[in-house]
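Students often ask why we bother encoding 3D structure as a string. The short answer is that it lets us treat folding as translation between two languages. Here is a chain of 124 residues written in the first language.
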Amino acid sequence: MSTAEAPVSDAEADALFADLIDLPVLVLAVSGGPDSTALMVLAARWRKRVKRGPKLLAVTVDHGLRPESKREAADVKRLAARLGLEHRTMRWTGAKPATGLQRKAREARQVGYLVSGDLHDWQA
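And here it is in the second language, the structure alphabet:
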């Protein structure tokens, strides 16, 4: 499938990312689900095509709530590498809640993405 036939055209991608082109880094929160994975692929396609733009950094939180979470984070890392993107996995350590796991996992991802500070200090 050519980019002209892609579900999101180059022009649509340009419009979507237009306000972000001058950022030094664009952090992509990628869980490995279809929505965030599609966004990562679209962003990589866009960034490869434009002459200037932000460095793309894909970040996945391994919440450790399910045995599959480590493998899922590794899958995202492999795809990011194939797309030419840098990737970091952040691990949610410490006690996990007995109830409200989905909500707490989402909160941990959001807090992790927002307060990580210097991107170079993240542990892979």
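Translate back mentally: The first strand starts at residue 25 and ends at 29. Keep this in mind for the problem set.
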